[in-house]
Predict the structure.
Amino acid sequence: MELAKRLNRLPPYLFVEINQKIAELRAKGEEVISFVVGDPDLPTPSHIIERMCQAAQDSTNHRYPETAGLPELCQAIAGWYEKRFGVTLDPSREVLPLIGSKEGIGHVSLCFIEPGGLALVPDPSYPPYSLGTVLAGGEPYSMPLKEENDFLPDFETIPSEVIDRAKLMWLNYPNNPTGAIAGLDFFEKAVHFAQQHDLLICHDAPYTEVAFDGYKPPSFLQISGAKERGVEFHSLSKTYHMTGWRIGMMVGNADMVNALFKVKSNLDSGVPQAIQYAAVEALLGSQEHIAEHNAILQRRRDKLLKVINEIGLKARTPQATFYIWAKIPQGYTSIDFTKKLLDETGIAVTPGIGYGKEGEGYIRFSLTISDDRLEQGMNRLLVWHRRSR
Ligand SMILES: *Cc1c(COP(=O)(O)O)cnc(C)c1O
């Protein structure tokens, strides 16, 4: 079958062999402990589920929703942004609910990227920024996130002919996969850079509520002038353990919000209304579980970091996100090291190369694994290390 050329422009899927190995081990009855997926292991808080069930019983919610979302939801999102970040949003013009933020992240390039056009994309990064660019016919230009720069892009090193051709810049803090954070000073620099070069900014911020040691990550929209230049993607997935329900939002610049609305109103019919009501409950109801979950993740972080450093990998202590980005020993590619780990310990991690060229030399551990499995995994790593010395 001949596929459209744009599909051939997507990069090859790198993890075929690793996934095969995992399947083989499991088929042999071996227990693979996976640190791969970033998906909260705790259930959605019960008051949110109760609201969803109640809304599901109401037949007015059995019909097509509207792409623009329920006014109640847009207001709840605006209210949450005001309360959490002191950012004021017009719920009717500056808020757009999404079928999970990945959906909007993937589609937004259709609004701004011309065939052959450039988007500045961090490397390493969450794959949909560059895949969305490619599917829109554009080209991602990598902004390396180097450890020596605290995994922040260095705008000075982007060639001026690239900047001239670029339309959009992607940013993501707290960052997946590196666990790095950005302060308001960095966002201010980014907005200034965008103003100078007539760029739009898409900031992806699903981890602002997953933070440790009392740290409170800021919103990019707290910078004055940010709303003239960009939008922020956020999600209920990580904050409210709602990955399976698929609901997120794009907020900020009204023209950008309207552009994505235009695309989406032609492609989808919005978020199922029972889920929208559940999201209203999540945003307006008790926020207590957030601190509780962060305390659990912080304990896991500290335990696993200790083991990671003991076995000769090197990782910084992430102040936010549920990922540990660990440097592997020299002489291995991240794929080879991942295979070795899987073969010798039955532990699965994500090879850094999956997030871009600059991810080479690293592997990612996710902390969204039950405490039991975490203990088991850490034991395996320690035994493996002692044996291999
Ligand atoms: C998890 C994640 C998302 C979004 O998830 P949705 O479930 O689609 O809302 C977006 N960006 C990054 C970097 C993520 O890790």
